User: Which sequence fits this backbone?
């Protein structure tokens, strides 16, 4: 399955996404494609520099995981949870300053963390790493795999009037691909 999250700003956005926008308010639509059809849902309220996003990844006909966070004046807190086997095994979060940032989430594949880590950042860009726990707890500052449903997830948030980055890739049969795009400046 593939989950795509896009955040528009400026009243509209491109393709396969939709929402209403106010001057400083953003809405994100999450669509989960599964078995040839699209299950979609979109929701939450936003206010001046504040944003709440919920991401749900379906597996086996129901929702196993959720993600969300809040923003307040150029500071963001993100919580990512990856469900496996009907419950949430992990959680991660952090904060960012500045209004520009890059967020990358990577989950190892093959039982360990393959250190294809992050990237380079410029002065006004921040990078955040999301850790996915396995076995009921979170192993700090690392990544790893979820057996049978291993996946690689990369989330990047662009800023500056256009989408600065995007990430996605192919996965095996029971793997997932998640792509997050954040638009700013009236288009995606």
Assistant:
């Amino acid at each position: 399955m593939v989950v795509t999250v896009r955040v528009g700003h400026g009243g509209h956005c491109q393709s396969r996404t939709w929402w209403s926008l106010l001057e400083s308010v953003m809405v994100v639509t999450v669509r989960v494609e599964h078995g040839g059809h699209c299950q979609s849902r979109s929701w939450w309220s936003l206010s001046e520099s504040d944003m709440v996003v919920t991401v749900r990844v379906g597996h086996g006909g129901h929702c196993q995981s959720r993600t969300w966070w809040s923003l307040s004046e150029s500071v963001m807190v993100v919580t990512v949870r990856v469900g496996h086997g009907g419950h949430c095994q992990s959680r991660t979060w952090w904060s960012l300053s500045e209004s520009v940032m890059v967020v990358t989430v990577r989950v190892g594949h093959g039982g360990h963390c393959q250190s294809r880590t992050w990237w380079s950042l410029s002065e006004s860009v921040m990078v955040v790493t999301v850790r996915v726990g396995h076995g009921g707890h979170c192993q700090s500052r690392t990544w790893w795999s979820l057996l049978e449903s291993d996946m690689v997830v990369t989330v990047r948030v662009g800023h500056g009037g256009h989408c600065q980055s995007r990430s996605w890739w192919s996965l095996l049969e029971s793997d997932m691909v998640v792509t997050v795009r954040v638009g700013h400046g009236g288009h995606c």
Observations:
- Residues 1-188 have pLDDT under 50 and may be disordered.
- The two ends are 23 Å apart (CA to CA).
